Amino acid sequence: MATTQDIEDLIARVALGDRAAFSALYDATSAKLFGVVLRVLADRASAEDVVQDAYMKIWRHAGRYSANGLSPMTWMITIARNTAIDRLRQTRPGVALDDVADHLTAPGPNPEQSAVAAGEARRIAACLDALDSDKGAAVRGAYLEGQSYADLAERFKVPLNTMRTWLRRSLQSLQECMAR
Amino acid sequence: MSDASPDTPRDDDSLLAAEYVLRLLDPAEEAAVAARIAREPALAEEVAGWTTRLSGLDAEVPEVAPGAAVKTALLRRLFGQPARLPFWQRAGLWQGISLASLAVAGFFAFQSLEQFAPPAPAPLFVSEIVAEDQSLRLLAVYDSGAAELRLTRTAGTAAAGRVLELWAIAGEAAPVSLGVLPEGETVALPLPEALRGAVAGLVLAVSDEPPGGSPTGAPTGAVLAVGQVSAL
Questions:
Q1: In a domain, B209, yes or no
Q2: ipTM of the prediction greater than 0.85, yes or no
Q3: Each residue of A56-108: pLDDT tens digit?
Q4: Which of A177, B59, B195, B203 has the smallest number of CB atoms closer than 10 Å to its CB?
Q5: In angstroms, rounded to a whole number, what is the distance separating the alpha carbons of residues B133 and B137?
């Protein structure tokens, strides 16, 4: 099992164009990234295609991953998840993921904020479970399955605006719970 | 920490950042937030903060290994060819070698040795170097007494204007050329001293090369056939 430090080192070498490091990075992380992508797409063939796209972005953007406040796994999972959601919504014009990845690596949070957020991350499951079960399920549906407001409104059979209000309130409760 | 009032701009931006990270916004809203992130470090921090907070849910996703072909395809897309695999693994030929074919090889080894030379007391090793589609087959016998590899080609020839070059690979080491195969059916090639101690388990491979053999000292053309050496 590769440690966070191992993965950071590999990303640093990948940024220098080290193909062996890229191969090792893939070996160490692809099962996680593929799991994330598969959860969103629920189709193995498109997930295999998308996970390749994600690693191509990781290869290209590795130079911009450096102490951006995200853990290396979070950075890579974010790229994989966004690539999967882009594929899911392929028919819609959206923001190019390259932009998203760039922005995430631009002016990251300071280390203290990162540490606070990392501590909060450990509480998210408990805090979601403390919400009404539908609300917790809606946040999980958005994050894990890439469901949009429209998808969630349909799933929970509520109007779109109601869904939006509902989810924003859930996120707020979540933030308060995690910050506690 | 901020108070919980939903009306302060800070909290509003925090929720907007959460919606952005969750990909809940429609494309126009998403583009607007992306443009603001580039200009507003405070919003960028909110986005990074939510990215980290929500990453706690990543633990709920089970790991699933993608098929081996995914990595091969990825490396090919990025680098133009499968990278960093020993070339004989790249050829993917190996798995076709059955125990039966080794037994047959062993039988022929005795036969041909008897034709070549009186039986040697030194250990013998054999290998059948064979193409996946059987279009090229060579039988190799190594007599450790003579430190010589004797090859008999039973099927296949080099392409017009090309030659066949024989390589030996010990473990993870780079292939070592044993020489270009002459056109005749049999040939005896000396095995470099460095390889003599590790004959069992050595991999032999034949590649397609320009006349005179590989100009680089490493295989440059397609790997046509592969075989593993075993003690007889």
A1: yes
A2: yes
A3: 999 998 888 875 678 899 999 999 999 999 999 874 444 455 555 544 544 55
A4: B59
A5: 10
**Rounded to a whole number, what is the distance in Å from the CA of B131 to chain A's nearest CA?**
28
A109-180: CATH number? 1.10.10.10
Contact A94, B23 (CB under 8 A): no
pLDDT at B1: 43
| B-contacting residues in A 69-128 (Cβ below 8 Å) | 69-71, 73-74, 77-78, 82, 85, 92-95, 99-100, 103-104, 106-110, 113-114, 116-118, 120-125, 128
Neighbours of B158 (CB within 10 A): 18
- The verdict on B24 touching A (C-beta cutoff 8 Å) is yes
Verify whether the Cβ–Cβ distance B55 to A77 is below 8 Å. yes
Whether B57 and A104 lie within 8 Å, measured CB to CB? no
The CA distances from residue B52 to A81, A119, A146, in Å, are 14, 9, 17
Fold of A1-108: Rna Polymerase Sigma Factor; Chain: A (1.10.1740)
Structure confidence by residue, pLDDT tens digits, A17-37: 899 999 999 999 999 999 999
pLDDT of B213 reads 85
**Do B205 and B164 sit in the same domain of this protein?**
yes
